[in-house]
Amino acid sequence: MIRLSKSCLSSEEKDAVLGVLDREFLGMGMEVQSFENGLADFFDRPAVCVVNGTAALQLALQAVGVGPGDEVLVPSLTYLASFQAISATGAKAVACDVLAGSLTLDSNDAEKLITSRTKAIMPVHYAGGVTGIDALYKLALKYGLRVIEDAAHAFGTIHNGRKVGGFGDIVCFSFDGIKNITSGEGGCVVTNDTVILEKIRDARLLGVEKDTDKRYSGQRSWQFDVSAQGWRYHMSNIMAAIGIVQLKRFPDFALARQKLASLYDQLLVDELNISALVQDYNYVVPHIYPIQILSKKPRKLIQDTMLEKGIQTGIHYQPNHQLSYYKSNREFPVTDSVAQRLLTLPLHPDVSEEDVRYICATLIDLVNGPPVAA
Question: Rounded to two decimals, what is the model's pTM?
Fold first, then answer.
């Protein structure tokens, strides 16, 4: 079976975890501090690690003061986590349409939805791309909004000569099991805003003020103060130990993902019934490889047949404005059109070029084959 996505682990990650187990300090300690230092070197900006990418988004929103009665602009075509992070603060997630070529947030549509309650914009770097990000920052400047980037897909992507996370307001990453690097679970917030960083450091430890320094020295706070809502969102040493190794391996991971995505592009470019994203894989490190099926062949049939032939596929994503909890009755012409045609093909460093050729040959035969009888 060619898996859609998977963790790519070596003996080095396993040895690192065993080292933590041997030391018997499993909570947040020196491994988390070391991972944060490695990420800070990677981005050339400070990073704070948390339990997952959703927590990173929620804590970033909370730190900038987003709360009940506020609104946050976010593309509908994203994983549910983006929306849940917003509503967890008590704010309203305002769904926006996306750009047709990149499926990233459409700044023109977002501007139409700005009200006196709008506090922030949450662009989502779909499939690792950042198309439209400069326009969104101009929009934020015009209306005095904070920008909290959901960069879960974009670890390693370069924009204007700088890594995503190395510029901008506040940038959040996920390190779950299938991301560009993993720490098993985990995430981080990257920003130059020292006030925001300090708020997140405290909030991840139940709001206990200055507890981070204690944890990094193997201690904990027995007498403390709490002045804001906190959460149990800190990263563990076990997770960080995996992340430290993965960060060292990332150059190889990135190259593998870029080569495989480029090969997909090469093999599918002339297919009239298949459309891929417009991405430059010299700069984008893709997390997923989504396509659109333009033929009338049912997507479910294509998925089922490919699975029978040993190929897992996925759908990224069901639009959030269609979900009961986040229902919106406004029109989303691009999102609604694209969502019913999306299909994600396998992409991770353990996929081979031979696998990609087999996947593409199988897919092309299916989408171009005889129509299904009514």
Answer: 0.97
